[in-house]
Write a structure and sequence with these properties.
The protein has 214 residues and is α/β, with parallel strands linked by helices. The protein has one domain: Rossmann fold (3-Layer(aba) Sandwich), CATH 3.40.50. 36% of the residues lie in helices and 21% in strands. It has an eight-stranded mixed β-sheet, with helices on both faces. It has a two-stranded antiparallel ribbon with strand order 6-7. Helix 1 links the parallel strand 1 and strand 2. Helix 4 runs parallel beside helix 6.
Amino acid sequence: MTNIGILGAGRVGTNLVGKRSAAGHDVTIGSRNPEDAAARTSGLAPRIAFADVRTTARTTDIMINATPGDSSLERLTDLRAELAGKILIDVSNATDDDADGLPGGLCYPDSSLSEKLQAALPDTHVVKTLNTMLFMVMAAPEILSTPPTAYLSGDDEHVKKTVTGLLGDLGWQPERIEDLGDITTARATEAMILIVPHILRRNGFTPFAVSLAR
């Protein structure tokens, strides 16, 4: 059993809660307003706790960054001490929004949010994954008729194996997890977000993933 913290109580973070809890993990949702988060997600799943962001980072073993990508770097840099020695799974994309609220451009076009987080948090193991799909696919890859791909980027091979196991708890089969290499490869998957708004404008929020076909 692993104690997992999820930073962010929006639809991405809350979508990841149920299967984590069902797999036997204790899950804490970290929010700026934990009471409001608890009220909005009442009855979501057992074994769920709510706390402020700093307490969540300090008391859990593995963190999932589900905060808005354009502000993640500032938010998580402030938690450097609490995140030291821990795994940080980054599922966010750092984008500037267009007028319709959909992603319009990358905040870090020559880098990536995950690279920025790894540089700002040198004592934390940052792994990028699950950022190339709509949020509902993250915890339910089986809802797509074509098996989707979960890409993986990170500097520590042992840590990536741990994250691969956690992806398995969400229903991801090993053959659908593509390890791209070190954390610099996250800039490739983060750039994939640029195709997403065009698909959403044509098809709405129909579940999909940007996947590798073989």
